[in-house]
Amino acid sequence: MRGYELSVEPEGAALRMAIRGRIEIANAQQVLEEATGHLEGEGRRVRLDLSGVDYFDSGGGVVVLGLRERLRERHGDLTIVASTPEIDGFLSLVDEEAVFGPSARVEGPRENLAERLGATTLAALAMGREVVVFTGEMMLGLADAIRHPSKIRWRETWLYMQRTGIDGLPIVALISFLMGLITAFQAAVQLRQFGADIYIANLVGLSIVRELGPLMTAIIAAGRSGAAFAAEIGTMKVSEEIDALDTMGLDRTRFLVTPKVVALLVMLPALTVFSDLVGVIGGLVVARINLELPAQVYFRQLQWALVPWDVISGLIKSVVFALLVAGVGCLWGFEARGGAESVGRITTAAIVAGIFMIIVADAVFTILFYYF
User: Fold this and answer.
1) Phi first, then psi: what are they for 56, rounded to 5°?
2) In what order do the strands lie in the sheet with 45-56?
3) What does the alpha-carbon distance between residue 295 and residue 261 come to, in Å, rounded to a whole number?
4) Domains recognised in the chain with CATH numbers
5) C-alpha to C-alpha distance for 141 and 152, rounded to whole angstroms
6) Distance, CA of 307 to CA of 290 (rounded, Å)
7) Which parts of the chain are beta strand (E)?
C-alpha cells in the first residue's frame, strides 16, 4: 500500500494539490515523482493542501522542499494553503537556503614554503625530544627492573611473553621454513653447475643464522607485537586511562612499558633460535629431495661451516631488535590523540617505524661485524 492519496484539480489560474494519509521516508520519493508528474508547462502556480496528512516526518519535508525546488526551476511557485501545527513546526526548522543554496567554500590561510618548512622542522624537533625522553625513561625502567626484579609486574610480563612468543611460533615457523626453502632452491641452481652441491649447507646455514633468522623474526615481531603494544597503549591514551595513572602518581613506564620490553627481550632471542632451526630444516628438505644429499652429510657440513660467533651475533641482533620493536610500539602508543582514527594511525606508524629501525640496525650491525 502507498499509504497516501494525492488529488489534483484546477483552481483558477493555479493548481490545487491535496495530499492525505502518511508522508514518510518510505514513500517520499514516490509522492514527489507523482506530484511532479502533474506539473506541466512553465510558470505553474501550485497551492498545496496538507491538512489531511496523518503522519509527516523528514520524508515529508523532502517532498515539500523538492516540489518547491522543481517549481522554481520551471519559474513556478508553491504555496501551502492548509496544514497542521505539527507540519508547520517541522517546516519552520528547515533552512531551505542551506539545503539548496551553493555550498560555501572555506579557504584557510595559505602557507608559503618557509612556513611549511619551519612547521615541519619544529615538529621533527619535538618528536626527537620525545624520543630522547622516552628512551631515557625506558632504559631507567629496565635498570630498575634489573636491580629490583620483585618490582616487575610478573603477571603481565608472563602474559606478554605468551602473546609475543608462544602465540607467534606458527607464523615464525612458516616464514622461516619458507625462507630456508627459497634460499636453498636459489643456491642449488648455482652450486649444481660447479658440482658443489654439498656447500648448500654452508650457504643456508650462514644466511639463516647470521641474517635471515634474526631479521625475519624481528619483522614478524614488529607486525605482531609492536602493533599490539601501540594499539593497547593508544587505546588507553584516548580513553584517558594513562592520565588517571599520572593523577594517582603511578609510574607509566613501570606499569605499561617495562613488562612489554622485558617480555620481548626474553622471547625474541628464543624465537630467533627457533627460526634458525626451522630455516636450516627448510634447506635440508631441498638438499635431500632436490640434490639427494643425506641428512648426515648436510648436518656435518653445517657443523663445519658454523662457528659459535655466527649464532651469538644473531642473538645480539635479536636483543637490539627487541628493544627497538617494543620501544617504538610503546612510544607511538603514547602519541595517540583523539579517538579510534588516531589509534589506527599510530598503529600503522608503529609497524612502519619498527621495520625501518630494524633494517637500519641490521645494516649497522653488518658493517660493524664486517670490520671488527
Assistant:
1) -145, 115
2) 4-11, 14-23, 45-56, 77-82
3) 39
4) 4-100 (3.30.750.24), 118-371 (no CATH)
5) 10
6) 27
7) 4-11, 14-23, 45-56, 77-82
106-156: per-residue pLDDT in tens?
555 666 788 888 888 998 898 889 889 988 988 998 898 889 888 888 888
Decide: residue 349, CB within 10 A, 0-12 exposed, 13-18 middle, 19+ buried.
middle
**Contact at 8 Å (CB) between 210 and 230?**
no
By three-state DSSP, how is residue 51 classified? strand
- What is the enclosing helix (H) or strand (E) of 263? helix 258-289
Is the CB of residue 253 less than 8 Å from the CB of residue 138?
yes
Using one digit for the tens of pLDDT, what is the confidence trace for 159-194? 999 999 999 999 999 999 999 999 999 888 888 888
In sign, the C-alpha dihedral spanning 26, 29, 31, 32 is: positive
Question: Which distant-in-sequence residues (6+ apart) come within 8 Å of 301 by Cβ?
Answer: 198, 199, 201, 202
Q: Is the pTM of this model over 0.85?
A: no
